[in-house]
Design a protein that fits this description.
Elements (H helix, E strand, L loop, with lengths): L4 H6 L30 H14 L2 H6 L1 E8 L8 E4 L3 H9 L12 H6 L14 E4 L2 E6 L2 E8 L3
Parallel strand pairs: 1-5
Antiparallel strand pairs: 1-2, 3-4, 4-5
Length: 152
């Protein structure tokens, strides 16, 4: 038999835990459901960075939008879409490439290894973070990889 959780919780309003004393005998109201706050960028970054450096395809997919937008590296090509199944391979491709802006010519992987904490760019909107050719956006589900710049 299936009983909705709301009915189970509602029936427990007057419960008293052993050893709680007389004050606990007062009726309790069920707490209103509050949404889980979206993880901070720092918490998300720790998980994404670990997954990307380890090549953990399942975790990369879990930390990405269902469909990631693919932009041309020169911003002149039409945007495409990368299905979740191909996102880990696209991330691996980007990690193997030079950043293009780094004075030392390091790859995205080398810069990612050297970046345990995301460095925010004041030019970017508050709900967006760009790391080289990877763009992350904060939405209702928290931070997710949402865009990749690559020409393939």
């Amino acid at each position: 038999m299936f009983v909705p959780i709301a009915l189970l919780v509602a029936g427990c309003g007057d419960a008293v835990m052993p050893g709680e004393g007389a004050q606990a005998a007062m009726p309790r109201r069920a707490a209103a459901a509050t949404p889980v706050p979206a993880a901070s960028l720092e918490a998300f970054w720790t998980r994404f960075r670990r997954a990307a450096l380890a090549g953990d395809a399942a975790m990369i997919r879990a930390l990405s939008a269902p469909t990631v937008v693919q932009n041309s590296t020169l911003d002149d090509g039409p945007a495409g879409r990368i299905p979740a199944s191909r996102v880990p391979a696209a991330v691996a491709t980007v990690l193997g490439r030079p950043d293009g802006v780094d004075a030392a010519g390091r790859t995205h992987r080398a810069i990612l290894q050297a970046t345990p904490v995301p460095k925010r760019d004041a030019q970017q909107p508050a709900g967006s973070y760009r790391f080289g050719d990877l763009v992350f956006t904060r939405g209702k589900a928290g931070w997710r990889l949402t865009e990749i710049y690559m020409d393939e």
